[in-house]
């Protein structure tokens, strides 16, 4: 009888435990269901907020959107624009319309042009009749940075003395299908908006920094190595084709012959300060050094195009390209311009999704003794020049940094560039 009672007790206990476990499981399932429902509601709420934010942004964009009468494209004016693609980046800084072009890679990024003074040492010039205007410095010029619709490109627009309106259109091109954009097309349009005829001509001064650390700052397509001042005329460029700037690892081609490229008048390679002082008809001094008074290499490319006469309402244009590569590769700019197929030995396997690697580097990787690599930034600060050591310049640089940092719309890239430049200047002063 006792055994029967124990057995009954165990059965009742087991049943109670099972019911309890079932109750716990049911409770947990209910809690899980409630959490899932709350999570779904939260996600739905976040999605709604995100959608509302995007709609608000789109509405705001629509309000500031303009359509250009000349191109028919939609754009937005801005004081700063970072036009970023996967491999290339172009940066535009107001109010003067300074610009630079960067290669982006896993190792960081490298600029084609000098970073000093917010890229101000590189500029376009416009000759109207007998007067030469430096467009990022001269007075009586209205300047505008345009972000094109859908971030498809950028324009710098200059209206000079209510006489000539100039559009510099930057667009990105891939040299091969299914690859990232590796070429920048720079096309300039000059429009006579005055009531009389004018003679106009264009000049570009590019203060290159990428090749300063190499033994030869410039190389041409024929392999001509250039380490002091030289000037090429139009017929020379038919064979030399392009100016190559490289530190070994990163390479830029400034393409000046072939395809849709506008024939040049002169291409002068020299010290940037010497080139900046040249008037339109100044003669080049062959063999003059690239170095400044402090023995720092400071080379630049100056490109002059032929003059043309414009009647009221008339237009002319100038086109050139800049192609880029990294990881000791050579750019494919000339292949693209000439419409040539890339040789089989230089192609990657189709199943590899990466930029093609050329196993023949342009030149051995150079030492970077003259470049100041800051530990807290992802770019190299070019050698400091004489004018950057001037107290007034340093004070303007500090004021610019303070102004940017106190702005509601801080541009962290520009602040980083300027702080790195200031650090390098102070370090240079301490060494004197």
Outline the fold blueprint:
Layout: H1 2-64, E1 66-67, E2 74-78, E3 80-84, E4 88-93, E5 98-105, E6 108-111, H2 116-119, E7 123-128, E8 131-134, E9 141-148, E10 153-160, E11 164-173, E12 183-192, E13 198-206, E14 218-220, E15 225-226, E16 230-233, H3 234-240, E17 242-246, E18 251-255, E19 266-271, H4 272-277, E20 299-304, E21 308-310, E22 315-325, H5 333-338, E23 372-373, E24 380-381, H6 391-405, H7 412-431
What does this structure look like?
By secondary structure, the protein is α+β, with helices and mostly antiparallel strands. 28% of the residues lie in helices and 31% in strands. The chain has helices at residues 2-64, 116-119, 234-240, 272-277, 333-338, 391-405, 412-431; strands at residues 66-67, 74-78, 80-84, 88-93, 98-105, 108-111, 123-128, 131-134, 141-148, 153-160, 164-173, 183-192, 198-206, 218-220, 225-226, 230-233, 242-246, 251-255, 266-271, 299-304, 308-310, 315-325, 372-373, 380-381. The chain has an 11-stranded antiparallel sheet with strand order 1-2-9-10-11-12-22-18-17-14-15. Strands 7, 8, 13, 16, 19, 20 and 21 form a 7-stranded antiparallel sheet that branches. β9 (141-148) and β10 form a beta hairpin. α6 (391-405) packs antiparallel against α7 (412-431). The radius of gyration is 30 Å and the shape is globular. 34% of the residues are buried. The model is unreliable at 1-21 and 345-380 (pLDDT under 50).
Radius of gyration: 30 Å
Walk across the major sheet and give the strand order. Answer: 1-2-9-10-11-12-22-18-17-14-15
Strand content: 25-35%
Spatial shape: globular
> How many angstroms separate the termini?
108 Å
């Amino acid at each position: 009888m006792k055994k029967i009672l124990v057995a009954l007790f165990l059965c009742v206990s087991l049943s109670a435990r099972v019911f309890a476990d079932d109750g716990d499981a049911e409770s947990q399932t209910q809690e899980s269901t409630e959490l899932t429902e709350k999570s779904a509601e939260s996600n739905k709420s976040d999605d709604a907020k995100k959608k509302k934010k995007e709609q608000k942004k789109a509405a705001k964009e629509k309000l500031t959107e303009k359509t250009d009468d000349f191109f028919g494209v939609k754009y937005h004016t801005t004081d700063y624009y970072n036009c970023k693609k996967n491999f290339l980046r172009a940066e535009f800084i107001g109010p003067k319309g300074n610009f630079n072009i960067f290669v982006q890679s896993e190792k960081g990024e490298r600029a084609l042009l000098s970073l000093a003074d917010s890229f101000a040492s590189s500029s376009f010039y416009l000759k109207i009749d007998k007067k030469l205007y430096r467009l990022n410095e001269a007075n009586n010029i209205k300047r505008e940075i345009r972000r094109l619709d859908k971030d498809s490109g950028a324009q710098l627009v200059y209206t000079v003395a209510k006489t000539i309106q100039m559009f510099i259109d930057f667009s990105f091109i891939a040299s091969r299908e299914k690859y990232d954009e590796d070429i920048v097309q720079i096309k300039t349009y000059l429009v006579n908006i005055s009531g009389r005829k004018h003679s106009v001509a264009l000049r570009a001064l590019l203060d290159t920094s990428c090749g300063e650390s190499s033994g030869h700052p410039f190389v041409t397509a024929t392999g001509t190595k250039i380490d002091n001042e030289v000037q090429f005329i139009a017929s020379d460029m038919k064979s030399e084709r392009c100016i190559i700037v490289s530190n070994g690892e990163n390479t830029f081609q400034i393409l000046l012959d072939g395809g849709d490229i506008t024939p040049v008048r002169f291409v002068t390679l020299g010290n940037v300060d010497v080139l900046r002082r040249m008037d339109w008809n100044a003669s080049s001094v062959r063999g003059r050094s690239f170095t400044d008074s402090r023995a720092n290499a400071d080379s630049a490319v100056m490109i002059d195009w032929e003059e043309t006469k414009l009647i009221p309402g008339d237009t002319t244009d100038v086109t050139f390209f800049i192609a880029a590569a990294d990881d000791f590769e050579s750019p494919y700019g000339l292949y693209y311009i000439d419409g040539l197929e890339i040789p089989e030995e230089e192609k990657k396997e189709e199943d590899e999704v990466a930029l093609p690697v050329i196993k023949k580097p342009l030149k051995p990787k150079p030492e970077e003794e003259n470049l100041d690599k800051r530990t807290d930034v992802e770019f190299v600060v070019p050698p400091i020049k004489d004018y950057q050591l001037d107290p007034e310049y340093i004070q303007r640089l500090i004021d610019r940094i303070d102004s940017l940092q106190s702005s509601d719309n801080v541009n962290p890239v520009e602040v980083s560039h300027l702080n790195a430049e200031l650090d390098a200047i102070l370090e240079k002063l301490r060494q004197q």
